[in-house]
């Protein structure tokens, strides 16, 4: 095997974009012939409004397109091929049934402006989904409009503003714990409000003293994830709700972690006023390499008048229609009725699982997370990567790589990169920010025990290997299509399109 | 255990033993206070087997009349273009469908390179040098351009042409109300933005000026003139801008010298950009738009994608993901997410946008569609739509009781005015399997749009289809006028 | 990078079958609940007719199935990812449009016994396809029934038998050239006939003297591929036809190589009586890892009465029906009407290309093959791998690796295996049998010039490398999921199922 | 240049120069005599763009009434089972869809392992130790089993139960006529193979004895008794066998001692094998069948796959591909095509079969379907079909003018006799959106099947569907009888 190539064909190949393929004159699209009388082009569209040079799009045949993108696809890791325990992202199995039903022409080729009388199936589906989400959240007023979690957050904060404004108040402050996801503070600013940070207590929950100190009449809202991004349920939630409500503020639930508590505990019952769902997490809309997503919101009675329009409502005769009116509505957040294609998938998921299945999903997600944690402990991993807070967790847990860094000279990043050589997608790294060298692991309910075992063993093996020679992990990965990339150079001299 | 989980009783027992608890319930009991536990089953129907779910969802689909079931001329923001089969194949590949945002670039080169190619394609299409990797959809992309303008110059007012799609206008208002910018609308004259009113409305307090190309009524705007007028009318006023920012209390991002002019934002239709002068060559600063026409289904309105392209100076204020080129330790070309210090997960409350999950898969469909159309195809398609749209407009406007709503050039969609109740006419057409187009007033809420019908053409609507529309629509209008005449 | 793993995760992983995954009790299928009255099982089906133990099928959850097979798929090379110049197989681009139209419920869920009046679309499609194939072959009577090429061959020989029997003759001999594909002689035997081999002349065609010597009144048929498996057109075809017809035999056209001559030259015009098509070759039905295929046949007037039944016929009123009757028909070769799903795809292909496109396909296929041949010559490859016959070729060509073996110590097999490390599927090897160390290259029309250039360069590079160190290629491949496999052991002690 | 080719004018010029010819025509001119060149364009319609082709094929599809469009109880060899979505996803993956037969095992481990798993599943299902990797479909698989028998014992006669599907019988006759074996049919008694006639027909000249389980009329045969009877009645006669072989002039394959008994071949329905005693436990030598019910679409009859399993002694006479396990040079487990000396590309005229391209993709769907059903699911499904079939049979047979055609146990399909013209009754049902089942006489051509209707049940046909069939069929029969009564 001496002199033999160590690199796979894929590794040998230098990346080439579609713009670097093809040749002038090649084409995949074949335009139907002109079937109407030819008219002088200048008459139809004067030259000054016309484009002088065609855009330099690729010139490629159909086989070239197919081969280019199929090959590119093979440079991706994906959930259908391996374990993807990316914390906070709920990478659960995506049933193909959902793609099938979403592709039915009656859904996929339905124009958003079709008359409601002739889109009754779609409206009924949305209405059913609203009801199901309302039941799961314990808050019955639902808008499906927002396009993703952070869009739902924006909706939620605009609702909060509208609620206060309606009462003649202009509250500006939004409390967010330091464990919050980045979208929370970013949304606060976009909604014209101000972030006030809350400290975390030793149990990983909100520091109640800090909360009490900051909860005043200027507070518009407290945004919370529960279980939070540490995978821990804030046991003081009722006290928190009381404190927030006492000062007239609203309580916002970031639903990214709903997968821990479906059928177990409901945000509405915890005292939340506004909830967003991530259909692409808890309700298994495939992540698509970064979307599409969908971020419906559910709210309490007092917030309901302000919901975005249109809403799907059911008339007395059992028919469904879109309600556009609403004096106090915050208005639209986007075109049309939301990401209906995602609704179809998530609705199919709810139909498949039913009440029992959804509850089982959360139970199993929590079982899997705790089992993985236990397995890691058995392997002695806790010595280098202790659990950041608590003893048990809900659907995910956060380890701290601090000891690993100090004792083995391995950063969490190195561990993550070495996992790539083992064929695993690494957990979320360096989040939440308050945990040193954080490693955030969310196995989800759809993984087998064998997979969890294998993952725990891989982590243990990497640590053993590092105890011998940390350089191996520091140089990882070795077996991927490319190895570690220079992100600093990329940001310093950005090349963000193909020069032509 | 459902069909998607794998925990057998034996598994569970072993797992509980490893955890050191007696039951799954115990794990919850030890963490969640009883007072907030749900003490009953969720009130949802029981789960179904796969084919039962399929049949239920198919029955719902069958109760919709889709573009598969009728001859549809609906457009107004989303269009019934043909999606080539190879796009479905690619978007259904596990490797593109099931991963998340490419946080680990070494195993995400596929998705990252797609983003890079997408950015290149959008940049070419718009003739603007920088593009991000996708926005949610069209209207909110425009609203996000407003946020960019607000961060950029801090001025207190947006000026928006009434030629924008009503949903876009509404979305802009919703967002702007949040971050504290006032929105002023400028009306149209013969179908296009009233140039005088536009110039009059814009001043040194104008943060951004927005128009659509082609506009909501199908008309091609003089984008160059609108941009120039906006720049001129809105020049100067750096102080005012800064003051405004303070007043609006916008967080964080430093306002680079509260630029000397409003940001000119155009909402463009990508399918027309083979033949229409691109925004980058018309003095536009930021071009946004709805990408559905590029390889995405109608899907009753989503998911699709929005695009966002801009001049170089706005690069570090762009919302959303951006892929950039770099090298790996062995010198191989590769791609990464870049300029992340703009983003929420790094910059938090100072981020230039809150967007996280966007529309990567839909943008993939978009760039593949553009490669499929290709350099020549996008022009040919544009010319075909131009010719057919003209034919359709002239054919329909020649019918009794139907006239053009305006006389501006149109490229893929046009507005008519019917001398009859639009809803009633549309209903009559539907009975003949024809969806005649969108009811303008129902969409815009504008009294001036009474009688307005917006008719969209795609490569799927042949001359024969247009002729059929003419027959059916002509008859429907005639019937309604007769009804009016006899006073029923 | 020392101590770093050279193996990819895929290479590290030992193959595990689906039977070695899962755990007792896991399931993907969820059976709908019993909705009819329960009845005593013994009454419905007595125990002695019942299965005692369930078959030991896998017990796996849906995510396990998906992951298992998606991962397995990644252990395959495929046409959508790379060049696949497998001679005699016409690995041309498979348009996805065809998969889409074939999946339309009106085609895909159409029961084969649906009443013809309610399957008019399907029958019209078949009728149109018959007409198109008849026109391309120059023989207008078509049966779509055979399931693949060799099934078409069987049909053809049974037709020949029936034709002779109808005339009171029992001819037994079938002439086949020594370049013939293995299915030809195998089919002869299955049809109860006897193979008589014909020699090949120095031009790569049939040795006319040998033909004349063997053509006698016992000959039932001559089976020919034209262009033959050397990629060469037999210039004596008219003479051959005359000779065969003079002794009352039929001339059979193995249509595997039709991709060379669509719209250029028609078997019927060459004098053939019976032709089979390989829809999975010339008409781009995807190969599916070894099927499905479809092997329609077209025949001349005198053979038509014997065609398999049913046939699709058009009635006077323009309607279509299935004609089952036919006294002299050879009968059925399979259930129902043939591989309709393949018909849909190939018909879509013909609609897409039209007359001009099909002709262009053959022209380009031939251009590509000759260009690749020229490129290899430019690289000096001919020194080691000379063209076996002739100077030009049609859609494919056969090189002889004899000199390479003698001068470089490299067998054609080694060259093929080393090509794997370059990311190419190797050409067909060791066929046709009469060429020493044969390498049979068929690029097809859907490949780009750049791909052909890259392939030529890879061959040249391998030869250069071998001139330095032949051991590298002899040990190849190195970068595949597994390396060279022990085929001898596999055949000696066959393990052809998972022991359970 | 079409959309599938990439040769631009510039490419062509450079390529011709490299070849050293002036035109593509010259390449042909130099090789193909003018006399056999086509001197005109093919008479075919002009090519179409992708969406035009789509629409044409969709319009054709729309003129078929599929199981999507009516409540269908058609079966008789192919069944409207639900195909789970994951199967489409897998069969549409380029990696499975687009390669050919795994000639290069190092880059074909995916396909090869699938074959190995498929063989295992079929072997388990049939309780027979060896399976090949697929046959074209059911009836020709049975005919190929005949060829195996002929090569094995060289006897001159096949005995076939009339309970075989008529297509199977026809196909067997077609093949057998070719390789020179006579076919004798044995009739039924009360729906199952007449045991006496069966035993009487079989003797030492019987090469193989064939029956179906369940048979064409839905009846469950006593497979064990039929096998035992065939073995007994056909024992001995090695000399006769050898002589027969000589007479038939069969080529090649050595006849190992012209075995002492006929080969017993059963055509079985895989979906029933969760509950019916498997052929391997009933004395059957070769089990074949149609695999469509396992994850394959109806597709108006194909492509699907046939399966072929046998006792160990027939291994080296099996037709088709077989995958086997082995190791690579590094000791890794791997799979290859094995026992290829049986096959046409090696053994040529002495091959055990001529099959080359078979049905790999359909067999993949089959094994995935079996894994999806799983060990428990295949039993549960069988029980569900058993119960519903019983319910349907009793419900329908209770209607006026309808009776059971036989009283044997049935598991997924059953035959009725209508006291009315079947074609007319079926037409009436179709008008109500119900396809009542297959017209037995139209299929079999047997006069004794007059009035016969074959009704198939799948998991998609619920009790409500069956009740609807009862209503519609009952009314149709009543109406036809009335018509007969009044003598119209
Ligand atoms: C805790 C949390 N909140 C909010 C979000 C934002 O959701 P989206 O990406 O859908 O906008 C995420 C997404 O990763 C998250 O993990
Ligand atoms: C020349 C030739 N003839 C016949 C065949 C047999 O065709 P099939 O595999 O469709 O049975 C082939 C297939 O490879 C072939 O190449």
Can you give the mean pLDDT of chain B?
95
In quaternary terms, these chains amount to heterotetramer
The CA-CA distance between the termini of chain B, in Å, is 63 Å
Q: Which ligands does the model contain, each kind named once?
A: pyridoxal-5'-phosphate
Portion in beta strands of chain A: 5-15%
Largest sheet: spatial strand order of chain B? 2-10-9-8-7-3-4
Our estimate of the beta-strand percent of chain B is: 5-15%
Structural class designation of chain A: alpha/beta
By DSSP, the count of extended strands of chain B is: 17
What is the approximate shape of chain A?
Answer: globular
Q: What is the averaged pLDDT score of chain A?
A: 96
Structure description:
The complex is a heterotetramer, with two copies of chain A (500 residues) and two copies of chain B (488 residues). Chain A has 500 residues and is an alpha/beta fold. Helices cover 37% and strands 10% of the residues of chain A. Chain A has helices spanning 9-12, 41-44, 62-73, 96-102, 105-108, 120-137, 149-166, 183-190, 208-214, 237-246, 267-270, 340-378, 402-408, 412-421, 449-468, 470-475, 487-492, and strands at 141-143, 173-177, 194-198, 219-224, 250-254, 274-276, 297-299, 311-314, 320-323, 397-400, 428-429, 438-441. In chain A, β8 and β9 form a beta hairpin. In chain A, α12 packs across α15. By secondary structure, chain B is of the alpha/beta class. In chain B, the strands form five sheets. In chain B, strands 2-10-9-8-7-3-4 form a seven-stranded mixed β-sheet, with helices on both faces. A four-stranded antiparallel β-sheet of chain B has the order 13-14-17-16. In chain B, strands 1-15 form a two-stranded parallel sheet. Chain B is globular and about 80 Å long. The structure holds pyridoxal-5'-phosphate (2 copies). One pyridoxal-5'-phosphate binds at residues 88-89, 148-150, 181, 183, 225, 229, 254, 256, 278, 293, 295 of chain C.
